[in-house]
Write a structure and sequence with these properties.
Keywords: Heme, Iron, Metal-binding
Domain Cytochrome c: 320-428
Oligomer: single chain
Pfam families: RoxA-like_Cyt-c (PF21419)
Number of domains: 3
Strand content: 5-15%
Protein name: Cytochrome c domain-containing protein
Region (Disordered): 1-22, 349-372
Radius of gyration: 23 Å
Number of strands: 11
Bound molecules: heme C
Distance between the termini: 43 Å
C-alpha cells in the first residue's frame, strides 16, 4: 500500500477532540450554518428541532443544502496544513501577490462580500489594486473565491498568518458583473480561467524543477493524480453541477457518488485533515490526527446535487437548426448510443474502454491512471458553457468535437448536419 502520513499540524485548528455532540463540530462556522447543523444534529439524535416540533423532511433537506453551500464555499478541512505550513503560500500572497496578479492567474472576487466603501474605492481608484496589502484586505473580507485567509492585525498592520483553499477555488467562478473577475458567485461552474499550477508554483517551498512542472499545466487544468503517481498530465477542471441522478463520478467514473471523490480531493489534493483509501489505486492517505472531512461529506454532496446545469442563454443558438441537430444526434451521428437519457450519459449502466474517448490514444492514458481504467460518457447538460472539451481539453469548440467524431467514427455527416448538430449541443 502506498501510505502517505503527515504529522499533525503544529497549531490547533479550532476543532478539538473529543467530540461531545455533532453540533459542536460546526463551531468554526458562521451562525447560519451552526443553526442548520444544530437542526440536523437534533434530527439525527432523535431530539426535537425546537418548540417540540421536529423539522419537516423538506426543511431538513434545505438546511442540509445550505450547510453544504457554506462548506463548498468556505471550508478548508484544515488544509492550511498544506497551503500554509508546507507551501507557505501566506508569505508569498501577503508580500507579492497584488489583486491584478491574483486576477491574472484566474482568482475571482466575490463582489457581494465587498462593503460599499471598498466598492467605491475600487471605482475611484483610491484602493490600489497593485498592492499586495489590498489582497490581504480582500482575504480579510472573505472576498477571494475559494481562498480562505486568517488575517491578524499587529501594531495596526494586517498580516496574513494562515491561508487555505476550498472547493470553490476550482468549481466556482463569478459573473463579471462588477469588472472582469469580480462579480456574483456562480457555484458549480468550473473556473476555466484559473491556473492552479501557476499558483502552486508561486510557493517559496518549491524548487525550480518542480515550479517548471507546475507552470506547464496551463489555464483551466489541474492534475489530481500527479502527487499520487508522479506523472504530470493535467485534465480540464470540470463543472460540479448537473450531476443529480448520475452514479459515476469523474471522467473515469471512479466513484458511485460525489462524496467518494470529495473525500479524495479534500484529503489527497487540498491537503485537508482526514483519511482516504482506494484499494484499486493501492492508496491510503491520512493527514493529521483528527478527521475534519467525513462529517461534512453528506451536506457537501447534497449541495452539489442541488446545482443544476445552467440553461443555454436566449439567442445563443439557432432553434430551428438545433431541432434538426437533435435528429442527427439520435440518428446518423449515433451520439445517443452513449449520450442517452435525461443527463445524456449511459454512466449508470456502463463505462467505456479508453478507445471510446476521442482524446485517446494519449500517452499515458488518463484512464490508465484511474481506479477504473475506463471512461465515463460525459453528461452534456450545460455543455455550451464550458469549452474546451474532452478530459484533456483537446477540442477547443463544439464544432471541433463534432468534426472529430465525424472523422474518427467515419459517420459521413454533411457540413449541414455538422452545423445542425453543433447548434443542438449549444442548446442543451
Ligand atoms: C485545484 C482544483 C480543484 C479543487 C480545489 C477541487 N477540485 Fe473537483 N475536480 C478538479 C478536477 C481537475 C477534476 C477532474 C478529475 C477527474 O474527473 O478525473 C475534478 C472533479 C470533480 C468532480 C467530478 C465531476 C464529474 O463530472 O463527475 C466533482 C463533483 C468535484 N470535482 C467536486 C469538488 C469538490 C466538492 C471539491 C472540494 C472538496 C473539489 N472538487 C475541489 C479540480 C478541483
Ligand atoms: C461510444 C460512446 C460514445 C459515442 C457514440 C459518443 N460519445 Fe461523446 N463522449 C463519450 C465519452 C466516453 C466521452 C468522454 C471523453 C473524454 O473526456 O475523453 C465523451 C465526451 C463528449 C463530449 C465532451 C464533453 C465535455 O464536457 O468535455 C461531447 C461534447 C460529446 N461527447 C458529444 C458527442 C456527440 C455530439 C456524439 C455524436 C457525434 C458523441 N459524443 C458520441 C462517449 C461517446
Amino acid at each position: 500500500m502506498k501510505k502517505i502520513s503527515h504529522a499533525p499540524a503544529p497549531e490547533p485548528r479550532g476543532l478539538s477532540a473529543p467530540r461531545p455532540h455533532p453540533a459542536a463540530l460546526w463551531q468554526g462556522l458562521p451562525n447560519a450554518i451552526v443553526t442548520a447543523a444544530a437542526v440536523m444534529a437534533a434530527a439525527a439524535c432523535g431530539g426535537s428541532a425546537g418548540e417540540g416540533e421536529a423539522a419537516s423532511p423538506a426543511a431538513s433537506q434545505a438546511a442540509l443544502i445550505e450547510q453544504g453551500k457554506q462548506i463548498f464555499r468556505f471550508e478548508t478541512f484544515g488544509d492550511e496544513a498544506q497551503w500554509t505550513d508546507t507551501l507557505k503560500m501566506n508569505e508569498v500572497i501577503g508580500s507579492a501577490v497584488d489583486p491584478v496578479t491574483a486576477l491574472s492567474v484566474g482568482l475571482k472576487v466575490d463582489a457581494e462580500a465587498l462593503p460599499a466603501e471598498v466598492v467605491a474605492g475600487i471605482k475611484n481608484e483610491t484602493i490600489d489594486l497593485k498592492s499586495p496589502a489590498t489582497t490581504v484586505t480582500l482575504l480579510k473580507l472573505n472576498a477571494v473565491v475559494g481562498v480562505k485567509g486568517t488575517v491578524e492585525t499587529v501594531n495596526g498592520v494586517d498580516k496574513l498568518t494562515r491561508v487555505g483553499i476550498t472547493c470553490a477555488l476550482c468549481h466556482s467562478t463569478v459573473d463579471n458583473s462588477f469588472a472582469p473577475g469580480i462579480g456574483k458567485r456562480l457555484d458549480g461552474w468550473a473556473n476555466r480561467d484559473l491556473n492552479p499550477g501557476a499558483i502552486i508554483a508561486l510557493s517559496p517551498a518549491i524548487d525550480a524543477a518542480m515550479k517548471k512542472v507546475f507552470n506547464a499545466w496551463g489555464t483551466g487544468k489541474f492534475d489530481p493524480r500527479h502527487n499520487i503517481d508522479g506523472i504530470s498530465k493535467p485534465v480540464v477542471i470540470p463543472p460540479a453541477y448537473g450531476l443529480a441522478g448520475i452514479h459515476r463520478i469523474t471522467f473515469t467514473g471512479d466513484g458511485e457518488d460525489i462524496a467518494y471523490w470529495n473525500r479524495y480531493v479534500a484529503v489527497a489534493e487540498m491537503g485537508g485533515l482526514g483519511s482516504v483509501s482506494e484499494p484499486r489505486l493501492n492508496l491510503s492517505i491520512t493527514h493529521g490526527t483528527e478527521d475534519l472531512v467525513t462529517s461534512k461529506l453528506p451536506a457537501l454532496q447534497a449541495y452539489q446535487l442541488s446545482l443544476s446545469a445552467p440553461p443555454a442563454p436566449a439567442g445563443s443558438f439557432d432553434g430551428a437548426a438545433a431541432m434538426r441537430g437533435k435528429l442527427v444526434f439520435e440518428g446518423a451521428g449515433k451520439c445517443v448510443t452513449c449520450h442517452s437519457g435525461a443527463a445524456f450519459t449511459d454512466a449508470n449502466s456502463r463505462l467505456h474502454p479508453p478507445g471510446d474517448s476521442m482524446a485517446e490514444p494519449e500517452t499515458p492514458s488518463y484512464a490508465s491512471r484511474s481506479a477504473t481504467k475506463q471512461y465515463r460518457t460525459t453528461p452534456l447538460k450545460g455543455v455550451w458553457q464550458h469549452a474546451p472539451y474532452f478530459h484533456d481539453g483537446s477540442a477547443a469548440t463544439l464544432t471541433d468535437v463534432v468534426k472529430t467524431y465525424n472523422t474518427r467514427l467515419t459517420l459521413g455527416l454533411s457540413s449541414q448536419e455538422i452545423t445542425d448538430l453543433v447548434e443542438y449541443l449549444k442548446s442543451l
